[in-house]
Amino acid sequence: MNYFPDEVIEHIFDFISSHKDRNSISLVSKSWHKIERCSRKRVFIGNCYAINPERLIQRFPSLRSLTLKGKPHFADFNLVPHEWGGFVHPWIVALAKARVELEELRLKRMVVSDESLELLSRSFASFKSLVLVSCEGFTTDGLASVATNCRHLRELDLQENEIDDHRGQWLNCFPQSSTALTSLNFSCLKGETNLAALERLVARSPNLESLKVNRAVPLDALTRLMSCAPQLVDLGVGSYENEPDQESFMKLMAAIKKCTSLRSLSGFSEVTPLCLTAFYPICQNLTSLNLSYAAEIQGNHLIRFIQFCKRLQRLWILDSIGDKGLEVVASTCKELQELRVFPSDLHDEEDNDTAVTEIGLVAISAGCPKLHSLLYFCKQMTNAALITVAKNCPNFIRFRLCILEPNKPDHTTSQSLDEGFGAIVQACKGLRRLSLSGLLTDKVFLYIGMYAEQLEMLSIAFAGDTDKGMLYVLNGCKKMRKLEIRDSPFGNTALLADVDKYRTMRSLWMSSCEVTLGGCKRLARNAPWLNVEIINENENNDLMMERNEEDEREKVDRLYLYRTVVGARKDAPPCVTIL
Amino acid sequence: MEKDGLELEITELRLGLPGRDVTEKMMKKRGFTEMIMTSSGSNSEQCESGVVSSGVDVEKVNETPAVKTQVVGWPPVCSYRRKNSCKEVSTTKVGLGYVKVSMDGVPYLRKMDLGSNQGYDDLAFALDKLFGFHGIGVALKDGDNCEYVTIYEDKDGDWMLAGDVPWGMFIESCRRLRIMKRSEATGFGLQPRGVNE
Asked: Do you know which Pfam families this protein is assigned to (chain B) (predicted)?
């Protein structure tokens, strides 16, 4: 290959898009490294503090698309203080300054301000796509800047963000000449929507394939939107808590019938049973269905709906569907690949008879051979069930099981669930992500270390007995990238046993475990290429650092460590100490 | 059942993540089960490892033992989903939300639209109708003489006695209602009157 001119090699590299592959290419030789980095268009950075924007731009001058992730995963569960970090602003400033021709920005768990969005919208003339997932810190004013200034915007996708809705006219800000939209998702906005502006925008966007509206878009508006966008492939609807009258219902159904390209349906923060039936005509085409926000709808209505969805590949649903409902899913949805069953009762208000159990899971595993991704909240589980599931579905890539009550044993034998999870990791040779729950001893970690060869992400809560548990995982799982542990008795011995292991991992999170300040300090000393962050919301950290040696035995509330090439970050808040 | 033991534990639960002061490793692991207020009443040990997300009271409804929601960040449902699950009543628009109403001794929950009532009197009447029981209304109006008390959970997660605050403020902050026997209410941990605003 070295006899070919660079342009030819570059052209060949164009066919290689996966980040992993391109990273491998760049390691082959100096010349390949150079060609690769100069031609690289898309970069993925899993931890925004592992590198800084200047070095990124230096290495990849032709950057067009950047994906950044900020806060650690457990931030989703309120375990990370609000002000922890993950600010996108310095990145946008640096990219703008270097005149990078940025076209696409995808952020997850980052803090985004209106100022950042304004700067973004003014700095990149070819900007096409903004995807924000679980971000916060901005308002609809920021969206207005993006709408106004990004003349070539094709995609604006806002998923599960905390956005301050100023009920302004951001939808009006899309210029008349803006006709390039392919994807618009503002389902997480809480305020009222300018319906007229939305309808005009949709009407002049012939390429719009994905539209997800917020709660405030009523039924008649939805009907009009669907009527002028029958080409939609992906639709997210609003909230419909009142039964429609006959005429509205007929109009809605007529509009829906025309949307023959519709493959994905979501939204439904509230939906009446009748409303749901209006969608029956397109059920048979659906490959993706998300009814997981429709808390008020009863299981039998869900079941009736799903019976028509024979081509479903992805299903997100609430546990109100019950085991019986899952049996229907198992017999109907033979193409199912991904299933997520969320808990409908988060306040323990009812003695929830309809919540799902191991019965539903076993039924699914038996009926859906293509299943590879699972997130399952249930009230009980057994080893026998897990062993059966493992036998039925050896193709799991993601397996996340959450038994609602921590430390709950197998409810038929009162034993731990070590054997059940052991069967999963042994059978599913391609398993990349695993979340554990229920009563678990060190043994489950022995199994994981032994069998889970492809495991990249592991989430542990209220599990294990001794440091041996964590050590089995660290020693055994060669491909581990993200390990997150809470409320488990792992301490300094496990933490410090193999410091170099953390070179191969993106990050480690440990909260309410047994690691001490002394242990963390020792780790930080032995691994200067790690940022070892201690998060302690309850005290002034100056006080913490002044304490004498005895307090080295003080247990650490929350520890977050990650490899980095740019040293300690400068934007940490007072509650975070970087050792 | 040690109701009094129950409230003692509530006040002794510490506002911190578990593991800070636990002396025994085993207690660490069993720490969560000790937070569970089981009907066995064997809660002589202090629940030092108890974690309470601020404002959530331990609610003991008849004999069901498992208390699943007392730990920060558990179950691991992301906060966006928690906030937007319909079980949380939206307070941005008056009357937009239905609240769940539970009554001691009645095995199922009811839902009602608070906004469809004009005031506490209306609410009293509606509650009576909801449960087919003519004592609840009295509870609201003439609290001290009734067998039942009407309490509500506000948006901070605190349980308050219904009827104290102006109606408008009440429907803005009420997340759910509970009609509780007066005898059960005394150890419950209601916020004292006037604690907010």
From this structure: AUX_IAA
